[in-house]
Design brief:
The structure is a homodimer. Chain A has about 230 residues and is α/β, with parallel strands linked by helices. Chain A contains 8 helices and 5 strands; from the N terminus they run βαβαβααβααβαα. The mean pLDDT of chain A is about 90.
Chain lengths: ~230, ~230
């Protein structure tokens, strides 16, 4: 069985990517990051989802002492009520410098060690927070770089970074996930670190918009709201 | 004063890179990695050298639970007495999957957080152990990728990866470092993790060869030996 590494945060997108990779016949190995994020609940969600799918997983603990992101520094407020149209054009204070670059690097190391030929990442460049490291041109450049910098790559066994969700809307992701029977109730998206989702951070709002649009399209009798 | 990040291992090459960056007028911030390497002594050496040069530094602790390198797994023997000519053509068991990619990613995160425009890495593709992530084509691909994946890069403030030693021989590196007054006695190169350098691992042999060649060229009366 082919092996794949999944970058699993426990949120809606990465969980859908995990179920997608399984459906494509991969034996999945998840990398879950504990990077001091205030929304620790996503780590628990990720572990539960990895176990539920019978996937291997590793929790990688990293500390970015220099990070001044709202996701890791409790002194910075998580932005609330940003307009959806602003999200894809402005990089917000929840941005963690080089986060996906660090995450993918650990995934690549894991992949090379166990002989996996693919990394699945739930990056999305449509309904997203405007992070530069979620865009297709970044992913392609990463793939280029990693195949020059690893033993496998140099030996011609290319590592491929799969981004099945990159050009989907949130509603399309949820449609795909629903077909794949993703238990969305077990995923965690909220950035704020509370006991319940805040409903007003970027992540909550994108999630809500996704479900609203998905339901509006699926249940034609119900009026879609944004 | 312009800021630069230095990937500092405490060995001969990275310490020379640190002194080089200082000589070029940069205020230096070192990233020192504790990645479970058996040669922990290099971490102490790195901290000492960072302090000695008045540089800022951060020790980043990372764990690669999947790594099967001789540098992190004490069950694998560090190769001894490899022929120097074999080193640059064979990737040895001391190879840590995606090591420089992980290291550079943390450095890039640090750089973006403090507004540094350069990362100095002591990578060397001539007298080296054959690691793919020490070659110029890899470094250029990394630079390309990181400028697509960070806020600074997207805003046109490019991050540059400087590899001043990449095409030098070990003897040339030592010649440069000697001019810059690098206290080589405080650096640590040996992979084996003993109290004293083993003298037979790749790293010890390359270091020895470097000093022998440097001395042979500098002191014409002394016959050079290899």
């Amino acid at each position: 069985m082919k092996k794949a590494i999944i970058l699993l945060s426990g949120g809606l997108d990465s969980t859908t990517a995990l179920f997608y990779a399984r459906a494509k016949g991969y034996r999945c190995f998840c990398v879950i990051f504990d990077y001091g994020q205030r929304h620790k609940k996503e780590i628990k969600a990720a572990v539960r989802l990895a176990n539920l799918t019978g996937s291997g997983f590793n929790i990688v603990k990293i500390k970015l002492p220099w990070s001044n992101s709202a996701l890791t520094d409790r002194k910075i407020r998580v932005p609330a009520g940003r307009k959806l149209k602003d999200m894809s054009s402005e990089i917000p204070v929840t941005y963690v410098p080089a986060r996906n670059t660090i995450f993918l690097s650990f995934a690549a190391s894991y992949a090379e060690s166990i002989g996996a030929s693919k990394i699945f990442i739930g990056a999305n460049a449509l309904d997203y927070s405007g992070y530069p490291d979620c865009r297709p041109e970044y992913i392609r450049a990463y793939e280029q770089m990693i195949n020059l910098g690893t033993k496998r790559g140099v030996e011609g066994k290319r590592l491929k970074i799969e981004t099945p969700l990159i050009s989907m809307t949130k509603a399309e992701i949820i449609r795909l996930g629903t077909k794949l029977r993703v238990p969305y109730g077990l995923t965690w998206s909220c950035y704020s670190g509370g006991k319940y989702p805040c409903g007003i951070c970027d992540s909550c709002r994108l999630r809500e918009k996704g479900f609203a649009e998905f339901l509006a399209a699926t249940l034609p009798s119900r009026k879609g709201k944004d």
